[in-house]
Amino acid sequence: xxxxxxxxxxxxxxxxxxxxxxxxxxxxxxxxxxxxxxxxxxxxxxxxxxxxxxxxxxxxxxxxxxxxxxxxxxxxxxxxxxxxxxxxxxxxxxxxxxxxxxxxxxxxxxxxxxxxxxxxxxxxxxxxxxxxxxxxxxxxxxxxxxxxxxxxxxxxxxxxxxxxxxxxxxxxxxxxxxxxxxxxxxxxxxxxxxxxxxxxxxxxxxxxxxxxxxxxxxxxxxxxxxxxx
Length: 229
Fold this sequence. Notes:
This protein is α+β, with helices and mostly antiparallel strands and 229 residues long. It has 2 domains: 99 residues; 120 residues, 2-Layer Sandwich (Alpha-Beta Plaits), CATH 3.30.70. The chain contains 4 helices and 8 strands, in the order H-E-H-E-E-E-E-E-E-H-H-E. The protein has a 5-stranded antiparallel sheet. The protein has a 3-stranded antiparallel sheet with strand order 4-5-6, with no helix packed on it. The longest helix has 98 residues. It is rod-shaped, with a radius of gyration of 51 Å. The chain starts with a helix and ends in a 6-residue tail after the last strand.
């Protein structure tokens, strides 16, 4: 009887141990499954956030490209406007120079017209003195050849200047000047020099009228602005 109890006790002990081990194993598997589920949910959330961020990034990139294209168009328009304003400013400066409102400095040429040598056989003295039409010929040729500013005996000319011959003197804008008449012009010296020296041109015409004509290039000519007006 005592031996049966011992055997029965061993059976219960082994059975208890098996039940305890089975419970512990089941609990471990359950907890492991729960951890795996949480990790999967976390990974899914992170992937979802990443996908959402990538979509936002693509959207922002498209917006950036569109804004860059608009900016490029604006820059092109501004460049065109800048060129227009530059041209207007350049034209305005040319008009101010033409009107004599600003000081100008540059290279150019200087023409000197003087009365011809006295000829006792010449009955009419007007045939060898400088007249306003002689001065006009030189001035017109200088402007046609690109002169930006012209002066006679230091008197700067403007768009409404007038020149009148009054005996042995010439009146320019109300100021009288005797011969010789020094005509200064700012512009390309080579072009102006060549234009006045053309065969059959201004120089030859004046020489044929017994006018003393001299021409030289100048590295620097300065004209002060015309006061008043």
